[in-house]
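Minutes, structural biology subgroup

Action item carried over from last meeting: produce the structure token record for ABC transporter permease (Vibrio chaetopteri). EB confirmed the sequence was re-checked against the source entry. Recorded below for completeness.
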Amino acid sequence: MTQAVQTVPSRWERFKQSDFLYYFKRDKVAMTSFTVFMVILVMSLASPLIAPHNPYDLSTIDIMDAELPPSWMEDGDATFPLGTDEQGRDILSTILYGSRLSLTIGFAAVGLQLLLGTVIGLSAGYFGGRVDSFLMRFADVQLSFSTMMVAIIVSAIFKASFGSEFFSQYAVLMLVVIIGIAEWPQYARTIRASVLAEKKKEYVEAARVMGFKAPRIMFRHILPNCLSPILVISTVQVANAIMSEAALSFLGLGLPVDQPSLGALISIGFKYIFSGAWWITAFPGLVLITLVLVINLLGDWLRDVFNPKIYKG
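Output recorded by EB:
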């Protein structure tokens, strides 16, 4: 008699049968938010291919096309569906390229926050004692300053020390570092709380008895069990990072004019909104609000899904 061979389901099959996907399919808000986010993400990544114009190519920009209204309005031009800005750049193209910059800064800044917060939070929660006290007091000091205050101070110092030209050349990298450094305590405190609960469990004691060193226990055993809160906070932090970049660009401390992000576009258009060129600010602002809204909605859904006590399906 031959025994039936049981096939191990693949990761994709396990994912299709998971509670995560089951609840996702039942939540219309989550599905809609994810769809809108993916549309914005794909369009921004494909901006060099689908954008009607290249806002970085100065040879294609004509100042005579400045402040043209959207194509459906009087004096509008079909070549510029959403109108043009004060330099004659196509608003739709600048939104697509600007979204890519904003998302790049948001994800990269969150990556830096995650790296710093994970290492500090794991160390504080696992070692405890003086290490925990020192790291958490340092995080408390960081949290006593608002993100915007830290970002404005650091941006101003870099501009004063190295000049506006240097800052403009490395503006994207500078914003990633500034926003990443300003927000890492959020991760550190969340991960520390999870580590304090996890390190008392039997699998951690078993790893110690087997002679595993602290770094392996922290990163190979404890960290995978802390991924749920990390995923939730990462979603929220991406939205916060995008808003921080937009606010800094609006204040003139973010990306330069020749690298249009959503915040820079809103800042440029705000100067002309009272002259009747409302579209320069309105359309980038609408995209920014939509992007942040859908990310926050996804973050709220993830928080509820990973907390079965409050999730009702």
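Discussion: The mean pLDDT is 81.
Next step: EB to file the record with the rest of the batch.
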